[in-house]
Design a protein that fits this description.
By secondary structure, the protein is α/β, with parallel strands linked by helices. Helices cover 36% and strands 23% of the residues. The chain has 9 helices and 10 strands. The radius of gyration is 19 Å and the shape is globular. Bound molecules: adenosine-5'-triphosphate and magnesium ion (MG). The site of magnesium ion (MG) has 4 residues, from helix 1.
Length: 263
């Protein structure tokens, strides 16, 4: 697992009497997109917060680029965060700052070597990448839901991280905008060649963008493997989760999506 930027070993996490993660061990292979799926409230966001060091496990270990996040010094954690990009579930854009200032924020934090001119050039570049060129001066409140997601995406990649974590990039979007975000993530993955972790409960989106799937249920990892492996899982809870939107294989043949996504 030397080639995985993130390795979780037997991670346990409870809040009061409620166990959220009950012994999760897995890794996120470099250069691949892993989708973390599971029903609402199952601990997907909690898992992600362990990776960025916002939460610490009660037991077990989370290593990011080899650093044990819970035991590392604040400066070591900072060094790890610099190498990560994060799109939070609620977007977490600062309403008091413009689009450009929001996207520039990680550069101000992590790239003190860059001049303000260089920073602004980089902001313009990533806005082009998310297909919103020239909107630096806009107010966050003037953006549509899909535009907010794109701006959040631009902010997540602006400092050229080695791994990007997305918490529900499609939530609250109509199917067409959701598809456009999937395509953008797919394009970014191919052009940047970095590791992506995408939390979603959108099954169509999962199949569209992921190389691998990890499914959490009841605090445990109930499925973990390539997309095709997980779609063939005979685990009842996994089949139930997918059967709402997908035609699962009965034995032979490839799983398929309904509608225009198939093929
Ligand atoms: N800081 C916290 N303190 C107490 N409980 C928490 C905390 N963070 C999360 N939880 C609880 O842990 C459980 C898992 O939450 P989490 O946000 O990880 O769910 P999720 O799988 O991301 O769900 P969704 O798909 O709705 O986003 C929930 O019951 C939530 O209320
Ligand atoms: Mg969540």
């Amino acid at each position: 697992m030397a080639d995985s930027p993130v390795v979780l070993s037997d991670v346990h996490k409870s809040f009061g009497a409620m166990t959220v993660l009950d012994g999760v061990s897995m890794d996120f292979p470099a250069g691949q997109t892993t989708a973390v799926i599971g029903p609402s409230g199952t601990g997907k966001s909690v898992l992600l917060k362990h990776i960025v060091g916002l939460l610490e496990p009660d037991r077990g270990e989370v290593r990011v680029f080899g650093t044990d996040m819970a035991r590392a010094s604040e400066s070591a954690r900072y060094a790890v965060r610099k190498r990560l990009g994060m799109l939070f579930q609620d977007g977490a854009l600062f309403d008091s700052l413009t689009v450009g200032e929001n996207i520039e924020f990680p550069l101000v934090q992590h790239r003190k070597d860059l001049s303000s001119t260089k920073r602004r050039e980089r902001v313009a570049e990533v806005l082009k990448m998310v297909e919103l060129p020239g909107i630096e001066a806009r107010a966050i409140s003037s953006l549509s839901g899909g535009q907010r997601k794109r701006v959040g995406l631009a902010r997540a990649i602006v400092h050229s991280p080695e791994m990007v974590l997305f918490d529900e990039p499609n939530s609250g979007l109509d199917p067409m905008t959701s598809d456009a975000i999937d395509q953008l993530i797919g394009h970014l993955k191919r052009s940047l060649g970095i590791t992506f972790v995408v939390i979603t409960h959108d099954i169509v989106s999962t199949v569209n963008i992921a190389d691998r799937i990890a499914m959490l249920y009841g605090g445990k990892l109930v499925a973990w493997g390539t997309v095709q492996e997980v779609l063939r899982s005979q685990e009842p809870v996994v089949r139930r989760f997918f059967s709402r939107n997908l035609v699962l294989p009965t034995g032979e043949g490839e799983p398929s999506l309904p509608g225009p996504q198939s093929g």
